[in-house]
Amino acid sequence: MLSPTIGSAEATPIGPHFAPKAKHVIFLFMTGGPSHMDMFDPKPALLKYQGQRPDSVDLRTERMTGGLLPSPFEFKKHGQSGTEVSELLPQLAGTVDDMCVIRSMYTFNPTHTPARNLIHSGNIASTRPTLGAWLSYGLGSENENLPGFVVLSPGTRGGSLWRSGFLPAEHQGTHFNNNEVDPEKMIRYLRNTHLDAKAQREQLDLLGAINQQHHDAIGQDAFLDARIQAMETAYRMQFEALDVFDVRNEPESIREEYGATPFANGCLLARRLVEQGVRYTHVYYGPGQPWDDHKDLNNNLRGRCPDMDRASAALLRDLKRRGLLDETLVVWGGEFGRTPVSEAGDGRDHNPYGFTMWMAGGGVKGGITHGATDEFGFQAVENRVSIHDLHATILNQVGFDHTRLTYRYAGRDFRLTDVEGIVVKELLA
Amino acid sequence: MRPLKVLIVAALSVGSLAAQNVEFFESTIRPVLAEKCVMCHSSSLDTPMGGLRLDSQEGMLTGGASGPVLVAGDPDNSLIVEALTYKDAALKMPPTGKLSDAVIADFRTWIQQGAVDPRTEQTSAAGPSAKPKQNGPGTPIAEGRKWWAFQPLHEVLAPQPQRQGWSQRKIDPFVLAKLEENGLEPSPEADKRTLIRRAYQDLIGLPPSYEEVEAFANDSAPDAYEKLVDGLLASPRYGERWGRHWLDVARWAEDHPTREATNQPHPFAWRYRDWVIEAFNKDIPYDQFIRMQFAADLLPGFKPDDMRALGYIGNSPMYHKDARISRDVTETLASDEWDERLDAVSRGLLGMTVACARCHDHKFDPITNKDYYAMAGVFASLPLVKRPIVEIDPARADKLVWDYERLVRHKGQLGNLGEPDTIADQVHPIVAKMREDVKTLEEELGKDPTPMTHAVIDAGIWIDGNTPTVTWIDVRPGQPRDLPIFIRGNVANTGEIVPRRFLEVFSEGEPEPYKQGAGRLELADNIVGRAGPLAARVWVNRVWGHHFGTYIVGTPSDFGTQGHRPTHPELLDDLAARFVENGWSLKWLHKEIMLSATYMQFSQMREDADTADPTNQWMWRLTPRRLDVEAWRDSVIQASGELDLYAGGPSEDATGEVSRRTVYSQIRRSGLNPMLQLYDFPDASQHQPERQETTTPLQQLFVMNSSWMERQAASLTALDQGIADGAARIEAMYRRTFSRDATQKEIDLGLAFLKRRQAEIGREPWEEYAQVLLGSNELIYFH
Fold first, then answer.
1. Is the peptide bond before B128 cis (omega within 30 degrees of 0)?
2. How far apart are CA B161 and CA B560, in angstroms?
3. How far is B103 from chain A (nearest CA, A)?
4. B39/chain A closest Cα distance in angstroms
5. Which site among A26, A41, B573, B648 is 20 to 30 Å from A233 CA-CA?
6. Strands, DSSP E only, in A296-404?
């Protein structure tokens, strides 16, 4: 029962099943469900049938919807690949040749919490281990002073989205509040409020000596040794984390490139964490569910996209410049998309039937679009990709056969992909 | 049925029309299957959708989760035609859009003519799913009845180990015999100062005071230790310690994994926690303890505040069920809730992974898919409600229960329909009526002073999808619900209805259906009756694990074929048999264990024994370990003089201003207190077999830097500020923190630290020193 572990990595991770393409994953999560028809999936037919409600869009959604709502945004082809994105994304328009845009995602639930659970853990209930926990369990950490699974989210709610479920607790995500720039405020208990490093060193030396006295009286014990080690690691981590988590250490030009919003800091931090060997970083756009545009879509997206676009594109460029994009899989998306039919006149309801996500780096093909939705963008109809398929593909890129990354719990072997999932080979370089 | 159909097709396929029909298949049917169907239904996939493979004749004939897809010669009774015509809302294929009428007509023709299909199974490409469907559970029921864990309990004659004079209780010869078998020797008996600390932490989760240690160390009476154990078992602190162990099994918490309109927190969840603590203190026999948690209100001698016991299921996690989502999604969420409850009960009380049989018969254990739905039906007939805990007129009590139930349900479901007078109200007049109802109820119930607790009551739960755009939850008092089998766990695909009943393996033949209400009393009776030997083994093993840190069955929530076998089967049987004979008394069990020579061993490492048995499964010593977070936190606040022993009532934040025992801390499924989380407090969203025990740097950051630790250090410092002499003050602090005298070396270390820091900051930093003591290994170590 006693299983002391140093650092946040399991002592003996499973290790990959085959040579991985990616060593790190960064998931840029657009909580609330961003509108694919306004960003990545142009649907001219919406204008043609504006306000109408053909049979094919008479799908059950969460709320009452009206007729077809055309996108107010103009789409153009970009890059050598000619991938189309809307005017909302001028910066990502410049990185499309590194991106693999999946226009045929679909999920199984029209409500936020279950859909969010599904994309985080492969199941609609709030109980299963999350993707980051599976990666931490499978890969361990490259850096003993930092957790293997980092969550960057402004605000503190949502702990169940980075749970380890039935996996050992050490694999749960460690949350850092990227609403703050100062690491001391981002990380709970990171800094002592009144002792300086020297004072704390002396305190720890005394603690070490007192523990040694106890140790001498008790005799050899793995737990006692482990706790002494962990105390020292914690001491060093205070300073390492202060450095790593401080985006203010970046040159002004880099900070300018990403922008200065919490999401921008999250993206920049994600890159710094990749450099430090963190396996999985999950960056949430905003607290709450900002992309849940039930109304006033035009203004909302014009307000939110510049920040998201700038930081996401900067992350891709920055990783590429440093030669890290090849070994880092970047995934972008939300729990579902939005309906082509309107809600409240100028908004869109949740759409689990079809939506867009994109990936870049980490051994996926750049400059492609995969799959398609129907003529209005409601349902994925061509080369459909399920959430389980997405998970299987992500696991494949970090070297795991998703059918063999299992954990014995409650009498059976559990997988992130349950009994589903097919690696989408067309996406792979 | 199925073999017959195969024969017909086989006969046709070699008939005279064969060549012509093959041509028809190849030109019209095969291209459609290839283009529209096999991307989801192919044997080349690891997991073809619905288990259906349409890329070979065999696959088509075998069918999938919904059965065979075609009846040769009979298109009207062929599932594939039904799917293609989009007539059944639950079965429209292909999902990307209905095929043209001409294509559907081709399929009808093809089937009418005998469904000739020359394609053969591609055996090389066939994955595991292409194997014929398994029938029956991995272990057949008849064979399963012989499984060791299900056998009746009887006392076992103790073995005769070679070594004489070591054994103290009947446990010991069993342990000693195994040690000898494995060439190991037991450790010597622990000294009295170690023993008293061990007994205190184990039974009440607090360290003894310095005075208590000294009095015990100097008590040379032969029964001093037994008296110590008796005294601790009689302490009200005992229930606070062991009740908490039960709350782990019951995955108790005060809210749900998320917090939305239909799954608001449970304000009175603490009443169940208090009942559990009281039950442990009273040593309610374990079988009665279980019965009460399912059906206290149906038992003789029921007192109104026993209603609190129903919080076991009454505080289960709930998931948000938005009124605007479809019937199937809502039923899936509801069935997930029933599944969680069934799982918590079956693994928690019986060590059986019944939930594995939700989609198919259990792959390993003697549990059928039918068993699952028979048991799940009980939970589909037990809504979570509030019930009064005081004596009131039964009619009024009944009205209160259903008024509260309706209020919570309607309010939750309305919560997502927007403000009054919006679309929902216009479309559904019922919505406006519900709003009125909620208003009235809020007013009435707001004035009602009756204290309530979270419980269950007998009423079936149905999901009503009759209104096109709104899904209602329909709760029918007094009308239990037998569930249909959800084929492969899919609520949209139902099979035969299964009467509520217990697991078949525990009865001769088919068990009789439950008749009283939901069947909760019958279920509880079955758990401690028919399955009583198993339930006793499971509970005795859990108790053993808490005392020793290792289990006799290493998988405490899985006593099935996939779990560990017991290291000491005869010992477990004997102890469980005597536990039942002694009236299922937990206090008897504690004493039997704690007075054993096995328990009283020293915990010191011995290289030779450790090499031979590194996990200490043969118990050559007592396994030393980290205290769990409750015992550690309580030890810290006791040392700092902050411990407030006020018992019961609403919970507080574990790191807040109030320093009551940790068992009274808020437990949230939606976001656990960070201190509890750091120290491996289990996620109460589902049953956890045992606690993890990790040692991480983040825990140490808490010790070094949290304001909570600093506050405890300040309190400890303040207690002895009247002592002017540094050495004397250090000694006093050692007595408070570790219940022992400091050694000279330890005093010297302290004085040197204080002196050095004084030179730097101009004063003696006693708080810094106190924090080191509270953060030391000694205080968090159980041995």
1. no
2. 30
3. 19
4. 9
5. A26
6. 328-333, 337-343, 347-351, 355-360, 368-370, 372-373, 380-382, 385-386
Say which CATH class A24-187+245-427 falls into: alpha beta
Query: CB–CB of B602/B594 below 8 Å?
Result: no
List C-alpha distances in Å: B613 to A2, B167, B530, B556, B610. 14, 21, 37, 20, 5
pLDDT at A57: 86
A213-226 tens-digit pLDDT: 999 988 888 788 88
Per-residue model confidence (pLDDT) at position B153 = 97
Give the integer Cα–Cα distance in Å for B379 and B495. 19
Which residues, 6+ apart, have CB-to-CB distance to B525 below 8 Å?
B291
pTM, two decimals, is: 0.80
Contacts of A336 in chain B (CB under 8 A): none
Residues of A in contact with B260 (CB under 8 A): 113
| Residue from A5, A61, A160, A373 to probe the interface with B (highest B Cβ count within 10 Å) | A160
Q: Which residue of chain B comes nearest to A65, CA vs CA?
A: B423
Q: Which residue ranges make up each domain of chain A? A: 24-187+245-427
Residue B10 Cα to chain centre, angstroms: 50
Instruction: For residue B403, give every residue at least 6 positions away whose Cβ sits within 8 Å of its Cβ, in sequence order, or none.
Output: B441, B444, B445
- ipTM surpasses 0.90: no
pLDDT of residue A128 exceeding 80, the answer is yes
Long-range contacts from A400-404, C-beta under 8 angstroms, 24+ separation: A400/A16, A400/A17, A400/A138, A401/A17, A401/A18, A403/B46, A404/A17
Report whether pLDDT(B524) > 90. yes
Interface of B with A in 304-343 (CB under 8 A): 317, 319-320, 322, 324-326, 329, 332-333, 336, 340, 343
Q: Considering only the beta carbons, identify the residue of A125, A384, A422 that sits closest to B319.
A: A125
**Which residues numbered 360-389 in B keep a CB inside 8 Å of some CB on A?**
363-365
Judged by DSSP in three states, B222 sits in coil
Percentage of chain B lying above the pLDDT 70 cut? 94
Among B639, B618, B609, B620, smallest CA distance to B712 is for B639
- Distance, in Å, from the CA atom of B556 to the CA atom of B349, rounded to the nearest integer, reads 10
